[in-house]
Structure formats: C-alpha cells, structure tokens
Design a protein that fits this description.
Strands 7-6-5-8-9 form a five-stranded parallel sheet. A four-stranded parallel sheet has the order 2-1-3-4, with helices on both faces. By secondary structure, it is an alpha/beta fold. It starts with 11 loop residues before the first helix and ends in an 8-residue tail after the last helix. It has two domains: 132 residues, Rossmann fold, CATH 3.40.50.1370; 160 residues, Aspartate/ornithine carbamoyltransferase (Rossmann fold). Helices cover 42% and strands 14% of the residues. It binds phosphoric acid mono(formamide)ester (CP) and norvaline. Phosphoric acid mono(formamide)ester binds next to α2. Norvaline binds next to α6.
Length: 313
C-alpha cells in the first residue's frame, strides 16, 4: 500500500508494526536519523492544526529530513490548478505528502496521482494518524490484550467517531459510539464499513443514543469537540443543544470501570464536551496521546517511504 488515505486501509499487521516502531521512537526518538536524510516531506493543510503540524514537522526532522509546510492558500490549487497536476509536481520534490483538508475525495485524488506516499492528516470523514496515537496510548495503559474491555466514544458522530469505530474494528475490540440520533449520528456508510471489518476480526461495534449504557463498565471514554472545523456556524445552537446530554461529566465517569481512562484528540472545550474536572483529572491521558502524535507519525513516515505498509486487502 503506497498511501495512508483512510483508517480502514490499515491491516492489523500494519497497525502492530506502526505501534511497535512508534514505541521505539518513544524511547529513542533519534534512532533513525538518516531515514529521510537529504529528503523533504510536504505538509499541505487547508484547515488549522496545532498537534498534527508540529508532530509531522518534528517527526520529519527526527528522521533527518526537511519538512516543507504549505498552507491552503499558498498553492496554485486555489487558482484552478488541478489536484492531479499538483500531486505530480509535489511528487517531483518530496518523498511524502501529508495532507489535511475538507473532502476525503481530494485526499484520494492526491493519492491516485502522486507517485509518493500520501498520508491523510484529517478530513471531514476520517483521522487515521490520530487513531494510531490513541491506540499506542491504550496499549501502554492496558497492554496488548484488550479482550473483555469496552472502549466508548461519546459525542458528535464525526470524523473521530468514524475513525474510532474503524480502528476498534481492526483491533478486534469492543467499541461503542454514543451520539445523538439523526443529523449528528455517525455516517451509516462508515458504521457498515467498520462492521464489515469487525466481522473478520471478532470486534464488536455498537452505535447507540443511550450514553449511560454506553459508558457503564467502559475502560475508556473518548470525546471530541462538538463544532468541528468546517461545521456550519448557523447550526451551532441547535447542535450544542442536541449534544448537551453527551457531555463527559464526573457523573458519567463514575459509571466506568475502576481502571478507566479519559481520552480526547484535542483541541478541547472545557465546559462543553467535557468537564474540566474530568479532562484535568487523574484518569485523563490526553498529554500522553498528544505526545504520541509525533512518535506515530514518525513511524508512519518511516514505513510508508520504505514501502512497508501492506494494507488490509
Ligand atoms: N488532534 C489533532 O489533530 O490536533 P490538531 O488539530 O491541533 O492537529
Ligand atoms: N472533529 C475535529 C477533530 C479535530 C482534531 C475536527 O475535525 O475539527
């Protein structure tokens, strides 16, 4: 597999290899400083980023390469140059392209026309690099055997909810998404794709509106912002009202397992999707997750440039 375009593309072997390599980069950040020597990695983003940009630029530096950051309006793409032409041009200069944008189909097109690996650094539909950071954190806390454990996403049925269900399916885990019904539920196509993977791995995928049942006995609660990048501001009041029963409170955390953790991809809005007492409390592993954005992106770049990702099919 040349690219990492979506979470569902990853095989279990890919994830295990990436998490093992990321663990090595955790203890020895500079153990492969010539992997990208005299090479560049282009990072193209049409949405803001704190973690993913920093993680990618520092990962490239640790691998001995040079990151080239391109903001949305820097490229001729905004003036009508095609995605296909842009992909070909970037392929002539860089060894990989890391891209954050709105439409998944734009990332897919970049992948189809680039000769170098294209890595999805967040679209409206998915966030694969985040899930690797989340799962190395889960592995650090609970070990590799997660049987009998339940991992619950609570909140908006957005890109993170899709990625959460998909990666849980790949890992053979019991994953749940507790979201409002209707407009802010996860996309049906994303849920059925996760279910199709689960059928081959023994995972259990649940989507529900019953937040208390969803978190009861859970080993982890994961949440995300209620207004994502690109969400229409006109819907804010309606959306926040629909999501208010899904706030992660101390009361909700009290229903989880004794050894449970609280997870969040960040950025967070304390007092909205999560209470400050939870995200800043003893069960929170948010700083470890954020730290692992670099170790995991370093692992993705290391293996993708060497052509070592196999893919699920
Ligand atoms: N979690 C995450 O992707 O953060 P940024 O938007 O800051 O990159
Ligand atoms: N759902 C959020 C995730 C941010 C990392 C967004 O897309 O804005």
């Amino acid at each position: 597999m040349k690219d990492l375009l979506r979470t569902a593309d990853l095989s279990r072997d890919d994830v295990d290899m990436l998490l093992d390599t990321a663990a090595r980069f955790t203890t020895h950040p500079l153990h492969a400083t010539d992997a990208l020597a005299h090479q560049s990695v282009a990072i193209y983003m049409t949405k803001p980023s704190t973690r993913t940009r920093l993680a990618t630029e520092t990962a490239v530096a640790h691998l001995g390469g040079t990151p080239v950051f391109l903001r949305g309006d820097d490229l001729q793409l905004g003036r009508g140059e095609t995605i296909a032409d842009t992909a070909r041009i970037i392929s002539g200069y860089a060894s990989a392209l890391v891209v954050r944008t709105f439409k998944q189909s734009d990332v897919d097109q970049l992948g189809a026309h680039a000769s170098i690996p294209v890595i999805n650094a967040l679209t409206d539909d998915d966030h694969p690099t985040q899930l690797l950071a989340d799962w190395i954190t889960i592995r650090e806390v609970f070990g590799a055997d997660v049987s009998g454990r339940k991992f619950t996403y609570v909140g908006d049925g957005n890109n993170m909810a899709h990625a959460w269900l998909t990666m849980g399916a790949i890992m053979g885990a019991h994953v749940v998404a507790a979201t409002p019904a209707g407009k802010w539920a996860p996309d049906a196509a994303a849920v059925s794709a996760a279910q199709a993977i689960a059928a081959t791995t023994g995972a259990t995928i649940e989507v529900t509106n019953d937040v208390e049942a969803a978190v009861r006995g859970a080993s982890a609660i994961y949440t995300d912002v209620w207004m994502s990048m690109g969400d229409p501001e006109a819907e804010r009041t309606e959306k926040l009202a629909a999501l208010s029963p899904f706030a992660v409170t101390e009361k909700l955390m009290a229903l989880t397992a004794a050894d449970s953790i609280f997870m969040h991809c960040l950025p967070a809005h304390r007092g909205e999707e999560v209470e400050a007492a939870v995200i800043d409390g003893p069960k929170s592993v948010i700083w470890r997750e954020a730290y692992h954005r670099r170790t995991t992106i370093q692992a993705i770049l290391y293996h993708a440039v060497r052509g070592e990702l196999k893919g699920r099919l």
